Amino acid sequence: MSARTRHRNHHQPTDDQLELRHAPTRRRLLSAGLAGGALLLTGATGCATGGAGTQDAKRLTGGTGATPTGKVTVWSWDVAAKALKRLGAAFEQAHPGTTVEVVDIGYDNAYDKITVGLGAGSGLPDILTVEGHKLPAYIGNFPNALVDLTSRAEGLKSQYPAASWRTVTDAGGQVFALPWDSGPCALFYRRDLFQQAGLDPAALATWDDYLAAGTTLKNATGRKLLILDGKQDTTFAQLLQQQGQSWFVDGKVAVATPAAERALTLLKHLVDRDLVDFENGWDGLVSGTHDGKAATTPTAAWWDGTLTTDLADLGGKFGVVPLPAFTPGGTRTSNSGGSTLCVTAQSRNPETAWAFVSHLLADKANQVSMMRQEGLFPAFLPALDDPYFQQPAPYYAGQPAMRLFAELARAIPTVERTADDSKAGDIVTTAVNQVLHNGADPGTALRSAARQIATATGRQPVS
Amino acid sequence: MSPRPATRPGRATRPGPAFGRAAVLAVLTLGAVLSLVPFAWMLIASTHSSSELFHSPPPFLPGGELLRNLAHLQETIGFGRVMLNSLGIAAVHTALSALLSAMCGYGLAKYRFRGRGLLLGVVLATMMIPLQVLLVPLFQMMASLGWIDSYQAVILPFLANSFGILLMRQGFLDFPDELLESARIDGAGELRTFYQVVLPCVRPQLGALVIFTFMGQWNSFIWPLLMLNTQENYTVPVALNTLTGLSHVDYSGLMLGSLLATLPLMLLFLLFQRQFVAGLLGGALKG
Amino acid sequence: MTSSLPVPLREPDRASAPAPAPAAAPARRRRRSPRTAAWLFAGPTAVLFTAFFAYPLAASLYQSLTARRDGVDVFVGLDQYRRMLHDPAFLHSLANTGLILAVQVPVMIGLALVLAVLLNQSWLRFRAGWRAVFFLPAITTLVAYAVVFQVLLRTDGGLADQLLQALGAGPVDWLNSPTWARISLIGSVTWRWTGYNAVILLAGLQAIGRDQYEAAALDGAGTARTYSGVILPQLRPVVLFCVITSTIGTLQLFDENYVLTRGGPGDATLTPVVYLYKVGFQQLDFGYAAAIAWVVVLIIAAVSLLQFRLYGRERRR
Question: ipTM score of the complex?
C-alpha cells in the first residue's frame, strides 16, 4: 500500500528492464521477511517450522528419463477424484514401485485446507487440484509453495488453449501446473420452449438479439431467459472474459472499463426486463433448470455432466449454440471453470508427482477417457480430435454438442491473471450484486469497486 | 449443601381456565412444529434420491430410498467408521477437557497465586478472538510436530476450554471455604480434597460442561477438516462435507448423515438435561 | 475459544456471564495455599494455553501489522487498521451487526421469555419432552443447517414460499433481496437459538421458589399479574445473562450468514467475522484479516466490560 509498492506495480509489467533491476531487491526483502518470521517462530514457541521456502521456487532436478518410484498423494473432489483413482491404478501398474493415493477432500471447503497448507508451508500432499481461476492468486501469494515445472512443461504450451495456459503460469511465464479440464462456454437452450415461442436459437448472434428473444420467449411461454445465482454468480466474469479481459489489464485495475460496463449493463437489462430467475447456489440452479424456469443457460461444457446425470429425465429437450457476441461477428465463447494439477514444494517425491500429472494430463488417451467416463472436458487440445467429440448425442436430440465445444475451446479469449484476482473477484461480486439486487447504476458501482480494489491491492486503476 | 438450584418447577396454585390452557398448548405446539420442521424435512429427504429432491416443489412425503441411501452412505464415506471416530474423539476430548476445566477452575477460584490474573486474562482473550485467524499458525505448529492427520492434533489444542474453566470457576466460587478447611484438618491432601469433597458438589456444572464440550467437539468442523487427511480418519462432519462436490451434491446422503449425527447429541441432552440447565445457571441464579 | 468454528458461536460467552470480572470477585480468605498446590490445578491448563495459543495469538497480532506484497509479508505498521476506516465492506458489516443487535436479540429474548413462561405452567405435562424439542435446533450440525435452510428458503417452491402462497401472499426472494436476506438471516438465527435461551430462562423461573407464586396468588393476583409483578423482576439476572451471551454471539456471528448468504447479496448480511474469513481465506490477505480480528476482539471486550458492569450491578441489587 506504500507509495513505493504502488510505483513498482505500476511499472512492473510494462517495463522489463525495471523489473530486472528490482529483482535482487525483492529477493533480499524476501530473505529479510523469512528471517523475521523465523525469529518470531523460534522466539514464541521454540519450534521452528518450514516457511514457504527459500529464495527461488523449487524446480525438478532429476533427468527426464528417470523412472518414477515411491508414493504420491493427491487431493481432489467428486468426479475428478474418481478419475484420479481410476487412472492412478493404471499408473501404478505401468510403473511398478509407485503408489498413488487419492484423497477426496470434498469441494466445499477444499480451498480452506489448501490455503492453510500453503500459508503454513506444510501439511500438504504431493499434488493438489486447483481450479484455474484460483491458481494465479496462489502462485502469486505463495511464490515458493509450488514446484516450478517450467523445464518439463514448457514444451507443452502449444498443446493447451492459451487461456488455460495463462492460468498455470506466473507473470514471467514460469509454469506451476498443468491444465486439466477447460470450460469453453456456449448457450444451452430448451428446444421445446424456443419452438413454442417460434424462435430460432441459431439467430441469436448478439446479446441484443438475446435480450429481444427473451421478451418474446417470456410472452409466449411465461418462462424466464436464464438463472443467476443470487450470491456468487460467475456470469459477469464470463461476459468479461468473452470480451478479452479480466479484473486487471497490464497490471492495472480494469473493472471500470467500457467492456465491464457493457457486461454489467447487459445483466442489468436482463434483470430490469424480468428475464432472470434468481436461485441460490448449485442446488437452486439444478432444480430451477429441472423445472424449466429458464429457457437458456450460458455456461461451460461441464454443465453437460450435470444435465445428463441429475437431469437425465429431460433427455432430448436441450440444444447448444455458441454464445451471442457483444458485437456482430465478435467472439462467441468464453471460459468458466476448469481445473489444474500442481505439485507442491512440500512433496518428497516431486519427480513421480510430475510423472503422474503429465501422464494424466498431457496424454491424449487418458484425457479422452476422462471425457468419456467422468465428463471432464479436456484442456489438452490433441484430445479434442478424438472421434468421440464428433458423435451425435441423444441427450441433445442427436446434436453432436461436444463438437461445438471442441471448436469453441480453441477460441477462448486469453485474459490476464494476477495474484490479486481473488481480492478483485470478491469486491466485484459485491458490486455486481448491488447493481442486480439494489438497482445501483453499473458505472457507479464498478467505479467504486475499482477504487476499493486499488486500495486493497496497491494498484492503479486504468486511465 | 450443593449450590444446585431447585429443579422442580415453581407451581402456580390456581389452574388456569380451560381456554387459557388451550391457548398455551396451541402456542407451544406451534413453536414445537417450527422447531421440528427442518428435522422432519431432513427425515423426508433421507428417504428420497438426490435427484427427486431437485423437483419443485420438493417432496413433502417420505419416499422409499432410505435403506439404499444408508447403504450408499456407508459405501461412499464409511459412515459406521466415521461415527466411531467421532464418538471416540468426542469422548476422549470431553473427559480430558472437563477434568482440566474443573481443575483449573478450582485453582483460579480457591487459590491466590502469581500469574492468576494473567491466566484469567488469557482465558478471556482466547474466548474473544475469532478462531479463523489462529488457524494458520496453529496448523504450522501441528505440522512441525508431525501431527497432521492424527487424532491428538484434533483433540489437544482445544482441550483447554475457556468456557469450561469460567463455568467451573463460578461453581467453585460459591463453594464454602470452611468445608475445605475441615477436610484439610482431617488430613486430606489437596488432590484428595478436590476429588472427594469438592467435585461431587459441582455435579450440575460438570453435567452442563460435559454436554457443551461433547456437542462442541461432535459438531466441530473446520479444525478436524484441516487436520485430517485420510478418509478412514475423518469425523462425521468432515466426511459429510465430502458429499458436496463441484458439480454434484449428494443431498440425500447429507440429510441422512446429519440426521443420524444428531441422535447421539439428542440422547446426551435427554440424559443430562437436568444437570445441564441447573449447571448453566449455577452463578446466574444467585440474584 | 470454541473447540472449532461451526460449533455454536455463542458458546464461549455463555461462560462470561457467570464469571464477574476478576477484580469484582469478592475478596475471600485464601488458605495458606502452597503455590505448588495451585499450580497442580491450574498448571496443566496454563501449559496447554501456552503451548497452543501463545504462538498463534502472537503470530496473528504480528500478522495484523504486515501486508503481503509479491508473496512476501512486509511490515506496514498500523496501515491495515487504518484501511478499515475507509473500507465500505467492513463498515457495512458493523452496521449489519448493529441492526441484528437492535432487532434480533430483543425479538429472540422476548420469544424465549414467552416460551419459558408457558413451559412453566404447573399443569403442563411432558415438560422434559417439550424442553428437548425446543433445544433441538441448537444442536443441529452446520452441514444440515445449511442444506435445510437453503431448501426451505428456496424462492420458488420452498416450504416458506408454499406457506406464503397458501396465505395468498406473493413469492418472496428470501435470500436475494437485501431486505429479505436480512430478515431470513434474523429468522434463522432466531430459529436456532430461541429454544436454547428459553431453556435457560425456564431454569431461572423454576429456581424461583414455589412460595413466591403462592404468596402472589394469596394476594389475589392473577397469573398475568403474578408474572409481571412478582416473578419477572426476579428473573432479571437470568434475562441479562441471556442478553449478554446473545450479544457476544451476534458480534461473532459467522455460521448462519456464512452458510445462507456468504454475507450477500452485496454486503447486506456481511458480519465482521464472515468478512475477515473472506479477506483471509478467499482473498489471501492474511494481514488485513488479522487486523479485523483484533478489532473484533476490542469491540467484544468493550461490550463485555460494559455488560459485566451492568451484570455486577444487577447481582448486587
Answer: 0.77
